[in-house]
Amino acid sequence: MGLRGRLVGLAAVVAALVIGGCAGPGSGDQAPPKAATADWGKAEGTVEFWDTNANPRLTEEWQGLISDFQKENPKIKVNYVGLPNSSYLQKVQNALATGEIPDVLLIGNDIASLIAQKALVPLDDALKEGKLSDKIDKDMVENERVNSADRKIYKAPLTALSDVIWYRKDWLTQANLKAPKSYDEFFADAEKLTDPGANRFGFAFRGGPGSMPPMIAMTYGQSGVGEFFTKDGKATLDDKANIKAFKRYVGLYGTVSAAADISNDYPKIVAAFDGGSAWAMHHNLGSFQDHVTALGADNVEGVAPFPNKDGVITSTSPSISGLSILAGSKQKAAAWKFVEYMSTTGNSEWAETVGQVPANLDAQKDPWVTQAQPLEAVVKTAANPKTQFVRLPTYLPDWGSILKTEMEPDFQAVLQKTMTPEDFLSKYADRFEKALAEYKEHGGK
C-alpha cells in the first residue's frame, strides 16, 4: 500500500469514530468554563503535567521531550508527574476535591466525566488562534466534539490507537504452525503452544486492572455485533452472540494462560509476552515499541481483529489520546504552549515512541508511520469495506468508572466462577442502558 493509501486508511480509522458516534447532549444549565485565551496570562512560569500512563520507557521519553520544549521556551518549566494508568482517575478526582490540580493532563477515553464536572477548559479558541486547526487531523478533532455536551474541544489530540492482537511469529515457526487467519485458528494455536510445565502459555490474559477494553474488543470482534447500543437504546452486551464470544474469551483464562493472570495489569501481560512465557496478548498499538525492543521486529506480529467466515471484520473504534488543560489552572498560557508544542514539534517523536497514529498531519507523512507493520494492519482494516466499527459510548460521563470500579471486580468473579458469564453481561447491559438514559435525561440526544 502506498503512502497515499495509508494516509487515506488512517483517516478512515478515525472517521469511523465520528460517523458512527452518538450525538452528545445539549448544553446543560451550568455555563462551560471560559474559553477565551485573553485572560490566560503570560506564557511563563511553572507548569505541572500529569502523565496518566506512566512506565519507565515512556517517562524517559516525556522527560526528553520536556527538556527540548524548555530549551525552546526558557521562561517555562514543566514539572513531570507520572501516574499508573490503573489508578490515575482516583488521583485526579482527589486533586479536584482538594484543589491541588495539575495544569496539563494526558487523557484518553475517560475524558467525559471530567468534562461533565467542568474540570477542563475548552481549547477551541486556542486551536484557532494558534492555527492548529489546519495542522491536526480534523477527524480526531471532531471525535473530541462527540464527547462533550457543548460540542467544544477539551482535549488536543496527540495520537489515535486501535486494539491489536500481538503474537510471537518465532513461536509459530518453531512449532511449524502457520499464522492464524481467523479466531478459530488463533484459539487453536494458543492451545497448541501452551506447555505449563515449561512455563509457556498460549495467551497472557489481562484479568486485573484495565481488563475491560480487551474483553470488549475480543467479545465484539468474535461475535460480529456491530453496535454497542441499538437505535432504541438497548445495550447489545448481552446479545446471544456476545455471550457465546465472551465465554470463549473467558475460557482462555486458566487453560492457555497462567492461573496468576487473574491479577494481570498492563505491565504484567507485557512482561509475560516480552519475557517469553506467552505466545500472544491483546492490547493496542501502544505496546509496539516495547515488543520490538524486547523481541525484535521480525519476531512480533500485530494483527487487527480477524474476519468472520463472511469476511466481515468487527473492530472497536479507535480511541484518541491527548492533552487537556485544567479549568482551575493558573498557568493556562504556559500550559497551552506545552500542549501546542506536543501537537506540532514533538508529535511525531511521541507518536513513534508509543507506536500510535500521530494527530499532526505532517507527522502522518513521516517514514516510520508508513513502515510500521501494526499500523499497516490497522490501516488495511480501516480501508476494508467489510470492516464495521463498534462505537464505544465514551461520551457517557460514567463510562470510565463503570469499566474500572464496577466491571473489573465482577469480571474477576467470572474468572473465579462465582458469577456466571450470563449474569455478568446482563448486569452491565442494564447498567449501560441506565447510564445512557441518565445521559439523555441531562440533555443528551
UniProtKB/TrEMBL annotation:
Keyword Transferase: no
SUPFAM superfamilies per UniProt: Periplasmic binding protein-like II
Superkingdom of this protein's organism: Bacteria
Xref: InterPro entries: Bact_solute-bd_prot1, SBP
Claim: Transcription regulation is one of the keywords in the record: no
Leader sequence residues: 1-23
The name this protein goes by in its record: Carbohydrate ABC transporter substrate-binding protein (CUT1 family)
The species this protein was found in: Actinophytocola oryzae
